[in-house]
Specification:
Blueprint: H1 3-7, E1 18-21, H2 29-44, E2 49-52, H3 59-67, E3 70-73, E4 83-86, H4 93-101, E5 105-108, H5 112-126, E6 130-134, H6 140-150, E7 156-159, E8 173-178, H7 184-195, E9 200-203, H8 209-222, E10 227-231, H9 237-248, E11 253-256, H10 264-267, E12 272-277, H11 283-293
Parallel strand pairs: 1-12, 2-3, 2-4, 4-5, 6-7, 6-8, 8-9, 10-11, 10-12
Helix pairs in contact: 5-6, 8-9
Amino acid sequence: MTMAAIKQGGALNSESRRIVLAQVAGFCFGVRRAVEITLGERMRSAGCMTTIGPVVHNTQVSARLQAEGIEQVVSVDEVASGTIVISAHGASPQIKARAKEQGLNVLDVTCPFVTKVHRSAKQLLEQGYQIILVGDRGHTEVVGVIGAIESRGGEVTVVSAPEEVESLDLGPRVGVISQTTQYSSVFEQVAAAVRRRVPDVRAINTVCGATEELQHAAVNLARQVEVAIVIGGRSSANSRRLRELCEAEGVPTYQIETADEIDEEWIEGKSTIGLTAGASTPDWVIEDVARRLNFGSLPEVWNLAHPDEK
């Protein structure tokens, strides 16, 4: 049955289909803060503004910033003048130093929880611990933490699973930290694997609270619905993990960036459809998807709450 047939009086309609929204979804504190500060600076300043990579991992947010005259580049070397914006995911001190050498203003909108990861890593280095970071290799946040420690003469080993610990050359003192958007369970498993081999281990769980709220809400959602849709950027690590959690509950799950990506076959014949969204997904995108699923209007019961509001 196609969406058109449903609208014309098929088995499902806006009354028989139920859109279930996760208890919390969308923008977290750090993302909202980064976007608001960036847009606020744009309103105050008439000069050139450029972000080094996306401010947050969401294509629609990046497009909206560009519409406000905020450009995006890969390297600070591409910027000739004005202000550069350090993303919510942070950056290495080398990038900030390079910007200042070029006479650029620096607007740092790094999430405070990411700053905590940097601070924890530096403390471990100062205390003589070998540093293991549970994270996704190549992720902007991970690259920034590595750069911060390397700038102080240290090293960081990145692992994504406890099995990787077995092949590491570990000293007598090891500190374990985490990328903010990881699973706490994986962090604990890695820390446990290190403890089995090392006498002195200091494990600092730097997974942020918003990440855990979103993950718990996604699991609860998946247990109530016939199909789940996760709205989030393809490069968003936390959105991918929401999809993985829903899939682990045995419910068909699809990750999309916009309402246009919805395939009618996913929802055909389904009476309960779950919606959640990653921490970088803005409200307007979530609402567009809800309207598409609910025949053009928001569900009668609609309470979009963010992870720092519950």
